[in-house]
C-alpha cells in the first residue's frame, strides 16, 4: 500500500513535489487546477524530472467543478476538451489513472438527463484515454453520487470505468457511511482511495485522521478484506502539515497492524490470505 497526498493548486507544483518527497510519501495525487497548477501553466518536463528525483509515482486528479453534464453543450464540450488536455499531460508524466467527478449541476433537469450527459462525456473521454494508456475512474460525491444505486447509474453502463472511493465523502449526506456497501457492490472496480476525516452531515472538512467520527480502523479492515493494496491519498487539508504527517503515520500503523492480524487469523485457520489488488 502506497500513501500519498495532493498538491495545493494555488502553489508551485514542483515545490509541492519536493516537500512530498521530503516527507516520505510514495506518490502525488496530482490535481491539474488553476490558479497555479492548470495544465497550460505547468512545466511538464520539470514535473516529470521532480517526480523521478523524489521517486514519486503519480495518480491523476481533475477539478471537481468541471461541467460534465451542463445543459449548455458548448460548456460541456469545453469540459471535455480540458479533460483531454489533462489526459495528455498525465500520460506525459507517467500516470496510469485519471479521476473524474460526476456532475449534477443541471437545474430544472431530471436525473435521467444528468446521467445521460455524464455518460456521454465519459464515453467521449474513453477513446483518447485508451489511446494514451490511461484508465478513467469516477469519484463518489456527497449528495447525488454517493450510494450503490447512484453510482451504478454510471458504473453499470460503462464497464471500463473504475471506482475512485473517497471514504470521507461516503460519510456525508447519508444515514451511515456507504464505504462498505460500495466495496461490496464494486469490489473489482476499485482503483484508488481517498481518506480523510469529518463529522458527517454536509461539511466536507478534510480533517486529520481521528479528528472526526470516521472509524479509520474499520475501513482499513474493509479495504484489506476486499483485497485492496493500492494507493491511498490522505486528503488532509490543514495549514499545519504536521497534521498530515501525523495522519500518514496513523494510516501506516493501522494498516500494518490489521494486515498482521489478518495474516495471523489466516494462519490459525490454515487458510491463505486473499491476494491483494495490484498497486497502480
Word description of this protein:
With 280 residues, this protein is an alpha/beta fold. The protein has a single domain (3-268), classed as TIM Barrel (Alpha-Beta Barrel), CATH 3.20.20. Helices cover 41% and strands 14% of the residues. It contains 8 helices and 8 strands, in the order βαβαβαβαβαβαβαβα. It has helices spanning 13-22, 44-53, 73-93, 111-132, 148-155, 179-185, 216-225, 242-268, and strands at 3-6, 27-32, 57-62, 97-100, 135-139, 162-166, 190-195, 232-234. The chain has an 8-stranded parallel beta sheet. The longest helix has 27 residues, at 242-268. The model has no long low-confidence stretch (mean pLDDT 96).
C-alpha termini separation: 10 Å
Q: How would a textbook summarize the main sheet?
A: 8 strands, parallel
CATH-derived topology: TIM Barrel
> Any low-confidence stretches, pLDDT <50, length ≥5?
none
Number of domains: 1
Q: Could you tell me the radius of gyration in angstroms?
A: 18 Å
CA-based shape: globular
**Strand order across the largest sheet:** 3-2-1-8-7-6-5-4
CATH class: Alpha Beta
Q: What's the β-strand tally?
A: 8
Given helix and strand content, the structural type is: alpha/beta
Number of helices: 8
**Mean of pLDDT:** 96
- Helical content stands at 40-55%
String of helices and strands: EHEHEHEHEHEHEHEH
Strand content: 5-15%
What is the second-level CATH architecture?
Alpha-Beta Barrel
Amino acid at each position: 500500500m502506497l500513501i500519498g497526498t495532493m498538491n495545493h493548486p494555488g502553489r508551485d507544483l514542483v515545490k509541492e513535489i519536493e516537500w512530498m518527497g521530503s516527507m516520505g510519501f510514495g506518490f502525488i495525487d496530482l490535481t491539474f487546477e488553476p490558479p497555479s497548477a492548470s495544465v497550460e501553466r505547468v512545466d511538464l518536463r520539470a514535473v516529470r524530472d521532480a517526480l523521478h528525483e523524489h521517486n514519486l509515482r503519480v495518480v491523476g486528479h481533475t477539478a471537481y467543478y468541471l461541467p460534465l453534464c451542463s445543459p449548455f453543450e458548448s460548456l460541456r464540450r469545453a469540459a471535455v476538451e480540458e479533460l483531454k488536455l489533462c489526459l495528455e499531460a498525465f500520460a506525459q508524466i507517467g500516470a496510469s489513472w485519471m479521476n473524474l467527478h460526476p456532475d449534477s449541476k443541471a437545474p430544472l433537469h431530471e436525473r435521467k438527463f444528468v446521467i445521460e450527459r455524464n455518460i456521454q462525456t465519459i464515453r467521449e473521454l474513453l477513446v483518447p484515454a485508451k489511446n494514451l494508456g490511461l484508465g478513467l475512474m469516477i469519484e463518489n460525491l456527497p449528495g447525488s453520487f454517493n450510494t450503490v444505486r447512484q453510482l451504478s447509474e454510471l458504473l453499470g453502463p460503462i464497464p471500463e470505468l473504475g471506482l475512485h472511493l473517497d471514504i470521507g465523502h461516503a460519510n456525508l449526506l447519508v444515514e451511515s457511511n456507504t464505504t462498505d456497501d460500495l466495496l461490496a457492490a464494486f469490489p473489482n472496480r476499485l482503483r484508488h482511495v481517498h481518506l480523510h476525516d469529518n463529522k458527517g452531515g454536509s461539511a466536507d472538512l478534510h480533517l486529520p485522521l481521528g479528528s472526526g467520527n470516521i472509524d479509520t480502523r474499520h475501513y482499513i479492515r474493509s479495504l484489506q478484506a476486499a483485497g485492496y493494496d493500492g494507493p491511498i491519498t490522505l486528503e488532509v487539508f490543514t495549514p499545519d502539515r504536521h497534521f498530515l504527517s501525523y495522519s500518514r503515520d496513523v494510516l501506516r500503523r493501522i494498516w500494518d497492524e490489521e494486515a498482521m492480524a489478518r495474516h495471523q487469523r489466516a494462519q490459525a485457520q490454515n487458510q491463505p490470505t486473499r491476494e491483494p489488488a495490484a498497486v497502480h
